[in-house]
Amino acid sequence: MATMTSSETEKIEGARAKSFRLPPALISYLQAAPLTLILGSFLAVPILMIGMVSFWDYDFAQMYPDFVTFNYAETLGSWVTWKTYLNTLKFAFFVWAITLFIGFWVAYFLAFHIRTAAMQMVLFLVCTVPFLTSNIIRMISWIPVLGRNGLVNSTLISAGIVSEPIEWLLYSDFAVVLAMVHLYTLFMVTPIFNTLMRIDKSLVEAARDAGASSWQTLTNVILPLAKPGMAIGTIFVVTLVMADFSTVQVMSGGQSASVALMMKNQMSLLQYPAAAANAVVLLVFVLLMVAAIVRIVDIRKEL
Amino acid sequence: MHGDKRGREFYMLAIFFAVFVLFLYGPLSAILILSFQGPNGGLTFPLNGVSVHWFANLFETQAVGDFGGAFRRSLLLGLMVMIVTVVVSLLAGLAFRRRFVGATALFYLAVASLVVPSIIISLGIGVLFQQIGLQPSWFSSAFGAHLTWTLPFGVLIMLAVFNRFSPAYEEAARDLGATSWQTFRHVVLPMIAPSLIGVGLFGFTLSYDEFARTLMTAGTFNTLPLEIYGMTTNVTTPVLYALGTVTTIFSFLVIAGTLGLIVHLNRRRQRS
User: Distance from the CA of A178 to the CA of which of A93, B5, B185, B225 falls in 20 to 30 A?
Assistant: First the structure.
C-alpha cells in the first residue's frame, strides 16, 4: 500500500465509487420512500377519501357517490354540534390548564432540583412507565376509587366529613377531566423537561449573581425559555382531548358528549358521509388551533 | 442548585412530585388489589375475601369474548409494528441527514400524523378499504393505522438522535478505508442501538395499547384493547380488573426487559 502513487489510489477509489456508490440524492429518496409510502397510503389518501365522502349521499345501508352539501349543512346548522364543540373545548381548556401547571412544576423539579443525571433519568422513567400501559385500563382504574362506594367516598364518610356519598365524583364532567389529566400529563411533562434540560445553567447562575431571587429567576429567565416546550405540550394535549371519545364515554357514563364521540356514534349508525363531514370540520378546527399555537410560539428550534 | 442545603422550594416541589406519582400509580394499584377479590366480591372495595377466582375465570372460555385470541393478535400486531417502525424510522432519519427535495413536506406529513385525531384516521382507512373492496383486518388496515401513530414518534426520536450525532466518527471510518455499509454497520449502528431499542419499545407499546385507530380498521377479529373496551360496557365483575392486572403486568415486563437491554448495551459499549 505504501508504494502506491496518488494517481493509483484515485483510480481505485474511482472504480469503487462507480461500482458501489449510488448518487447521494437517490440514496436519500430510497431511504425516505418507505415513510412516504406508508404515510401517503394510510394518512394522506384516507383523509382525501374522507373529504370526498363528506359530499356523498347515503341511506341506512350504503353510500352513493354524489356531490351534495347537506352533510355539512346538517353538521354546521345543528345546535347540537355547536354545543358539543363548546363542551369539548371546555374539556380541552381545563385539561390544558391543569396539565400545564402539573407538567411545568414536575419538569422544573426534575431539571433544576435533581442533582445527578442518573436520578433524573430514574424519576423521569417513573413518570413515563404508566403512560406505556393501556389507556382503557388506566381509565377504568378510577372506577373503584371514585365510585359511590369507592375509596374516596368511603374514606370521607368514615372520617365524618360528609354524611352521604358524593355523587359527582364518577360519571361526571369532573371525572372526565380528572381521567384526561391522568392520561395526558406526560405529553406536557416530556417536552417541557426536554426544553428545560437544554437551558444553559450559567444563565441561571448569572441571574443569581446579578441579585435575582429564585422566583425572579424563574419568571424572567426560565419561564420565557420554557415556552417552546410548553407550546409542544399544548399541541399534544389539546389535539388529544379534541380527538377523545373513549374517556368522555366511559367517565361521564354517557352523560356528556364530545365531537369525536358524536362522530363515533354516527359511524356506528353507518352514517359515514355525515361522520366524514364532521371529521373535516374537526380536522380544520384542530389544524387552526395548532397553527395559532405555532404562530404564538416558535417551536422550530426544538426540532 | 449548587448550594449544599436544600431550600424550602425543593421540599415543596418534592412533595408535589410525590403526590403526582401517587396520582399516577394509585388507581392502578386499586385495580391490582381488587383483581384478587373473592368469588362473591364486587367492583369496589372492600375486599370480600382474597382469591384468584377472577384470574381463573379469565382463562376459562368466555361468553363475552376471546381474550386468548385477542392477546395473540395484539402481540403479533405489536411486534409487526415494532419492526416496521424501527426500520422505517431509521431509514427516514438517515434520509433527513441530507437535504433533498420534498424533505420539508415529508417532515410536515409526519408531524400531521401526530396531530390528526385518531378517530379520523380510523374512519378514513375504514372507508378507503370499503371503497376499494378490501376486507379490513388487524394485519392490514389496523397495521397501517397503527403505523401512522408510531412512525412520527420514531422519526422525531431519530431526528433528535442524528442532530446530536457527530459526523467525525464516520469520517474517521471512511479515512480508514471503510465502505459506507461498513461505516454504517460497525460505527453508526452500535452507537445508535440504544435509541433504536427505545423506538422499538415505543412502537410496540403504542400499538399494543392503541384503540381509537383500531376501532374501524380491525375487521372481524378484535385486538385486546377493543376487547377490553367492549367489556367496560357489559362486564360487571372483577374479571375486568383481572384482565387489567394481567395486561398491565405484561406491559411492565416488556418495559423492564427493554430498559434492561438498553442498560446492558450501554455497559458493554463503555467496557469495549
Answer: B225
pLDDT of residue A302: 63
pLDDT averaged over consecutive 10-residue blocks of chain A (303 residues)? 46 48 82 94 94 88 82 87 93 96 95 88 89 86 85 85 84 93 93 90 88 87 90 93 91 88 89 92 93 82 62
Question: Which of A32, A144, A154 shows the shortest C-beta gap to B31?
Answer: A144
Distance of CA B91 to the CA centre of its chain: 20
Burial of A146 (0-12, 13-18, 19+ CB in 10 A): buried
Predicted structure pTM score: 0.87
Q: Mark yes or no for CB contact B17/A123 under 8 Å.
A: yes
Query: What value of ipTM does the predicted structure carry?
Result: 0.87
Contact criterion met (CB < 8 Å) for A38 and B88: yes
- From chain A, pick out residues whose CB is under 8 angstroms from the CB of B21: 126-127
Judged by CB atoms closer than 8 Å, whether chains meet at B127 and A46 is answered as yes
Q: Which residues of chain B have a CB within 8 Å of the CB of A207?
A: none
Going from N- to C-terminal start, the domains of chain A cover 79-302
d(CA A224, CA A298) in angstroms, rounded, equals 12
pLDDT of residue A22: 75
**Which CATH topology does A79-302 take?**
MetI-like fold (1.10.3720)
Domain boundaries, chain B: 65-234
A236 contacts in chain B (CB < 8 Å): 114
What's the CATH superfamily of B65-234? MetI-like (1.10.3720.10)
List the beta bridge partners of residue B137.
B219
B117, A129: Cβ pair inside 8 Å?
no
Which chain B residues touch A29 with a CB distance below 8 Å?
95, 100
